Structure formats: C-alpha cells, structure tokens
Amino acid sequence: MTDFPLNVIASLGTGQAFFIYAVIGFAFGWVLESSGFGNSRKLAAQFYFQELTVLKVMFTAIVTAMTLVFAASGAGLLDYNLLWVPPTYIWPGIVGGFVMGVGFIIGGFCPGTSLVAAATLKVDGIFFVLGALFGIALFGETIGFYEHFFNSSFLGRITLSDSTGLTEGTLTVVIVLGAIGVFAGAEWLEERVGKIPRAQAPRWRYGAGALLILGAVLVALNGQPGSAERWERIASVEQLRLDHREVHVDPLEVLSLLHDDALRVQLLDLRGEFEFNRFHIRDARHLAGSPLPELAAELIAMPANTVFVLIGRTGDDMEQPWRALRAESVPNLYILDGGAEGWLRRFTNPSAPPVAPRLALGDRHPASDPNPRLFEGSFEPKVEMEIKRAPSGGGCG
C-alpha cells in the first residue's frame, strides 16, 4: 500500500490535522499575495494581454504539481486512483465557466484571490467576497428550479489520458513543453502590449524550465504502475487475507449488513446473464463483463460507509476479480462465501422445491430477500471498515 494520500484527521487527530490545514492555507495565501494576486488591476490586466502573471503562476503550479504527482505515483509513494478528480458535467461546466469568466473580468477577482485581497483589507476584495457569499446563498435557495440542468450531461471522472489514449508520462512531457511555449508567448505579448521589457524577467527561469522538462521526461521513462504491478505491491498482505479466507463473508453476515442502517451495501454480481436471470439477491447489480478499472473508479467514489460484496457462482471464482479490484484500491471489498448458490441453499426452505435450471426467477424467489428474523445462526464476523483515504471533493475556490 502506498503512503499517500493520507487521511490526515484519521492519522494524526483533529487538532493536528487542523493545524496542518492552517499551515497549508497560510502558505497558499502567502504565495498568492506575494505573486500580486490580491491586486484586481493586476489580475484583470491578463485579459488585455498587458500583464500575464496570473497565467504564468497558475500554469506553473499546474505543470509542477502534475509532474510531481506522476513522479510520486510511478515511484510507488502515491496512489493516483485515490486522488480526487472532479466529475465532468459538460453543459453546466461550460455555463459555469462562462459566468465565472465574466465575473472575473468585471470584478477583477476569482473567489480565491478575492479572499487574499479581503485579508489585506482591500475594499474591492471585501465587497467581492460579500457578493460571492450572497451568490452562494442565492444559489442554495434556488437550486431546485434548475437542478435537472445542474446535474445534466454527467460524464464521471474523465482525464486527458482517458480521452486521448496517451500515457500519463507522454501527456506530462507534452503539457510541460506546451506550458513553456505558452510562457514564451506570454512574455512576447507583455513586451509588445504591456511594454514590460523581457530583460526584467529573472534568468533562473531558464534553469527551472529545463529542470521541469527533465522531470517530465523521467516521469515518462519510468511509467505508471499497471494492475499487475499494483497487485505485487500489496500482495504480501492481501494474498494472506485471501488465503486465510478473511475476505470470504458468511451469507448470514451479509444479511445482517443489509439491514444495518449505518452501512451502504453494494452487491456486485459478476455471474453470467443466464445465471443472474435464474436467481439473484434483491438489489444486486449485474456487472458481468464490466471493465474492472472503470468499475473501481466508480466504487472508490462512493461514500466511506459502503461495503462491497462480490457475488460469483461459488465464491472462490471471485478471487481473481477481488485481486484486480483491490489492486485498484477499492476499499471494504469482500466476497460472498459460497456465492449465489450458497446463499440460495442457506435461505431456502429445505422442503421447498429447487429452482429449475431453466426457470428465470430473478429476485422473485423468496431467498432473494430473506427475513433475518427467520434465519438465526452464528458466524465469524469478517467485515472491518477501512479508513477512507480518498477525498470526496476538492478544487480551487
């Protein structure tokens, strides 16, 4: 298992976590203020190609963070699957970006930089923050009128690598080179339009650019871990859990989990369509043939109190999918011991006739939704909730 990302509160406690958040927030605010981001005239000047500090600072932050993230992921220090990537909503995103862009030009701030200006008691920054708070309140009170549009054109987690088919390393090199080209173009515009002599720019920027290119090339050469390599990194622990059947959960325990109001239970049935139609547990999702990496991304994004139970024909046939999903960092993942057939035997009245092989009962069989009060017994509890390491949100305000 990788060391990062950390669940800071769970690892260090609330007090220390809040202290770390304050230090990071102070450093972020200090960088923004020292870069001139508390000055609305400086910020607005970028839209007239007179002063492009904002573009250069933000783009530098993006390419530096991107290079370090994929370098850490390639080195096995960071689990990229657990990083928060905001889901894509095409049309709401376009409309929201347009509104924010217009607001940025008129007001001279984005939400984050307005807080920097307000912190230094600039009047325009204070009024911008007050306006932003009013807008947030108004949005919260009126979302019901356009909620359908707000949640429309959902495409989930999409990255450039997913869209282009290029590896993360190749994209890192391409984007870093593109950023350096954009910086050169920005300096040219500043000199022509803003009358800022290029000689004023620090010479160390050439060395920094060369270092960034070298880092991107090393990231591309090192590559990113595939499923097999990810499994090898955790196999010493996870294979033991599998061998000792610590992840094979008794049907009675699964039934109790399904009636635990504090938990969300996702039953993932990976059997073929014929077997699923013949019988399945109520509310089970039929996922046979689903690409496991895409399924893993969906499961990771679910709330921290979610338990995932793989359902196969016998249970043992789910060990390979379990390995693949655990390698992709899916938490709280277990296997229904005995599979669907074991569930059917456990919760079927012994005197009842067996399900005919060609009968498609689906979830209409009594055993698909058994009453837990009618089936008492003991079992060894296996399910232990993991601390969720993946954040459920993020981004720049």
From TrEMBL:
Superkingdom of source: Bacteria
Region Disordered, residue ranges: 359-379
Entry keywords, A to Z: Membrane, Transferase, Transmembrane, Transmembrane helix
Keyword check for Secreted: no
PROSITE patterns registered for this protein in UniProt: RHODANESE_3
Gene Ontology molecular function terms on file: transferase activity
Domain Rhodanese: 264-352
InterPro entries, sorted: Rhodanese-like_dom, Rhodanese-like_dom_sf, Sulf_transp_TsuA/YedE
TM stretches of this protein: 6-32, 53-77, 89-118, 125-146, 166-186, 206-223
Name of the protein in its database record: Rhodanese-related protein sulfurtransferase
Protein's organism: Congregibacter litoralis KT71
